[in-house]
Amino acid sequence: MDASVACVVGAAIGVLGAVAGGWVSVVGQGRQQQRQLHAERAYRREDARREAYGALIASTKLLSASWWRFSDLVWDEQSTPEQWRASSAESHETWVQFSTAVAAVVVAGPVAAAEAADELRVAMYEWEMAGLDWLSAALREGHGQLAERFKEAWQAKRAPDRAFQQPARQALGTEEP
Predict the structure, then answer these.
(1) Do 153 and 126 meet the contact criterion of CB atoms below 8 Å apart?
(2) What does the pLDDT look like over 116-128, one tens digit per residue?
(3) Higher pLDDT, 81 or 15
(4) Quick one: pLDDT band at residue 27, thresholds 50, 70, 90?
(5) Under DSSP, is residue 146 helix (H, G, I), strand (E, B) or coil?
(6) DSSP characters over 143-157
(7) Rounded Cα distance, 91 and 70, in Å
(8) How many CB atoms sit inside 10 A of residue 71's CB?
(9) 165 has pLDDT over 70
(10) HEC profile of 4-54
(11) What single DSSP character describes residue 71?
(12) What pLDDT, on the 0 to 100 scale, is given for residue 6?
């Protein structure tokens, strides 16, 4: 083999080596980018879930507190029907925040957390309806000593309230000790 053929073969091997090295580099970078995108997507999903779950827990507590303020007011013999109505309206405004938070959890998922949030929504709705029925009865009777259904609905919402926390912890990976 003369020197010119050796140069050509050497150059071809060099070109092939450079192309192969470049290809390996591109493939490696592509895989790294895919892993990074996957990690960023998982982080954003967890962050969205954490935010949605926190908003649901906070709005549930705000709605509960609002209905308990209503209850205290209606039981107070010195309060007026106008105060009862205003307190009920405040609770309804808080319901809007709660309902929005449930929708955010349903979107953020996963399915188990969405289903638990919806069960909580149903239980809180029953409590809301019991409060509105109590308001109607109190306005009719002129006193607020008619709270049995309200108390039953409050008791019924306690289990779904706690039950939401289990799938939320699982979704966020906080179940580990």
Answers:
(1) yes
(2) 999 999 999 999 9
(3) 81
(4) low
(5) coil
(6) S----HHHHHHHHHH
(7) 8
(8) 19
(9) yes
(10) HHHHHHHHHHHHHHHHHHHHHHHHHHHHHHHHHHHHHHHHHHHHHHHHHHH
(11) H
(12) 72
